[in-house]
C-alpha cells in the first residue's frame, strides 16, 4: 500500500496522521544533521534545513533582556 493510500485509509477510520508526522519530523530534526535527515527521509537538503531551523529556538531576544537585567543589577 502506498503512503497516500494508507493515510487515506487511516483518515477514513478517524485517525489523522499529519500531526504525528510533523511531530516525528521535528523530533528527527532535533537529533540529526540536515544532510543525514535529507538522505534518511529522501527529502531535499533545503527542506531538511528548514525542519532543523524549526527546532532551533531563537534566543537573541531572551539574551538581550538578560543582558539588560544584569546591567540594572550592577547599577543598584
Keywords:
mainly alpha; 5 helices; 76 residues
Number of distinct beta strands: 0
Report strand %.
Answer: under 5%
Helix content: over 70%
Net shape: elongated
Distance between the termini: 69 Å
Q: How is the topology of this model organized?
A:
Blueprint: H1 3-12, H2 18-31, H3 34-41, H4 45-55, H5 60-75
Helix pairs in contact: 2-4, 3-4
Task: Give the structure's gist in a few sentences.
The protein is an all-alpha fold.
Describe the structure in your own words.
This protein is mainly alpha-helical and 76 residues long. Helices cover 78% and strands 0% of the residues. It has 5 helices and no strands. It has helices at 3-12, 18-31, 34-41, 45-55, 60-75. The longest helix has 16 residues, at 60-75. The model has no long low-confidence stretch (mean pLDDT 85).
Amino acid at each position: 500500500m502506498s503512503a497516500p493510500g494508507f493515510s487515506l485509509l487511516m483518515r477514513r477510520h478517524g485517525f489523522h496522521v499529519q500531526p504525528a508526522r510533523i511531530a516525528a519530523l521535528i523530533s528527527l530534526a532535533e537529533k540529526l544533521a540536515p544532510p543525514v535527515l535529507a538522505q534518511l527521509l529522501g527529502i531535499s537538503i533545503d527542506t531538511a534545513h528548514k525542519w532543523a531551523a524549526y527546532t532551533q529556538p531563537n534566543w537573541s531576544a531572551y539574551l538581550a533582556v538578560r543582558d539588560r537585567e544584569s546591567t540594572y543589577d550592577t547599577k543598584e
